[in-house]
Amino acid sequence: TLLNMGINGIVSTLLIISVGGDLNGPTIGGIFTIVGFSATGKHTRNILPIMIGVIIGGYTKKWSITDPSAQLALLLSTTLAPIAGEFGVGAGILAGFLHSSAALNVGIVYGGMNLYNNGFAGGLIATFLVPVLRSIRDRKAHAKTHVSL
Asked: 6, 32, 50, 66: most buried, per Cβ within 10 A?
């Protein structure tokens, strides 16, 4: 467990540095969040696809990944790690990409009065994406058995 926590801390720190981010109070807090939850199941294989999705969002949308709010979305998007762990890398990248937009725009819904944008956005994305991914997985399983839906 401690090794996993250390590896995830190093990986997330290097990822922030490699995208040109800043190591300041909020980002270090985000890194500590990843390290803490690494004791409960986060590992490099299920957080990297989510983070890659956020980075892709930073290069394809009008905001930059070096913005402070985008850096926090990058780190705290790992709340969706169970999606990558359950449904695979592609689903993880998609979840991270969607999370990047939701986290940076969800404050409009409640007038910015909620401190937990990333958690709320992660809940929204999971609520929408998990049933869709389960449906796709079930349809693929039924198609393999040649049973018509």
From this structure: 50
User: What is the rounded distance in angstroms from the CA atom of residue 119 to the CA atom of residue 124?
Assistant: 9
pLDDT given at position 148:
58
The model's pTM is: 0.88
Range of the domain at 38: 2-144
Which DSSP string do the residues of 46-110 spell out, in sequence order? HHHHHHHHHHHHHHHSSS-TTSHHHHHHHHHGGGGHHHHHHH-HHHHHHHHHHHHHHHHHGGGTT
Q: pLDDT grade, residue 117 (50/70/90)? A: confident
Q: How far apart are the first and last CA of the chain?
A: 43
The CA-based angle 127-90-59, given to 5 degrees, is: 90
Kindly report the CA angle at 78 between 74 and 80, in degrees rounded to 5?
125
Count the domains in the chain. Answer: 1
Residue 71 is assigned to a structural domain of this protein: yes
Residues 6+ apart with CB under 8 A from 66: 19, 20, 21, 58
**Is 149 inside any structural domain?**
no
> Which residue is associated with the tokens 């780190």?
75
